[in-house]
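Entry for the shared binder. Reason: the reviewer on the internal report wants the predicted structure included alongside the sequence.
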Amino acid sequence: MKSPVDWATLESLSELRELVARRRRYRWTLNSAWIAGTAGYLLLMTFGRDLLGASVLGAVNVSFLVVVLAQLLAFTLVASYARKSNRVFEAMEDRARLRFAQATASQVGKGES
C-alpha cells in the first residue's frame, strides 16, 4: 500500500531541512544550559555543604536559594523554547508546509503521483 505522503519530496525540501537543523541546534543549546546548571547544583551539593547550610535571611539558607534558582532555570528554558517556537519555528513550518504543497501540486500537474 502506498503512503499518502510523498516522503521523498518532503525530505528534499530545503525549508524543512533548515527547520530541523535550527530546532536541533536550539535544543542542544538549551540542553547544554540545563546540564551545566544541574552539574553546578550537584557539585554544590557534593562539595559545598558548608556554603549551602549558611543562613541568608533568618531560616532561609543558601540551599533553598539554589533550589529556587534551579526551578527558575527550568522555567526560563521552557519559556525560551516556547517563545522561539512561536516566533520563529512556526513561521518556518508554515513556509515548509506551503513549499511542500506547491511541490506536490506541481507533481500532480505533471501526471506524477
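Summary line for the report: The chain has one domain: 13-101.
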